[in-house]
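BUG: 3D viewer hangs when loading the predicted structure for this chain

Environment: internal workstation, default settings.
Expected: structure renders.
Actual: progress bar stalls at 90%.

Input used:
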Amino acid sequence: MFGLEVSRLGDGENGERNGVGSRRQLRMGPLPPFEERSRSFDPGERIVYRITRGSLLRGHVGTMTFIPTDGAPPDV
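Structure tokens produced before the viewer hung:
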């Protein structure tokens, strides 16, 4: 997404790939990479993360919420 290259640096609690504490490094083109860490994880529902290193947006908190679909493409 957004032309980002994403590398997983570490799994979260209990070995969960996206669990609390999981870390990723993101790189966009020639810009320096930055890291994010998962703060909250509800499997299949939500991930809350915080940018922790390497960005002017350090401290930014984002939430990804997943909504089930019936397989139909979204209305545009």
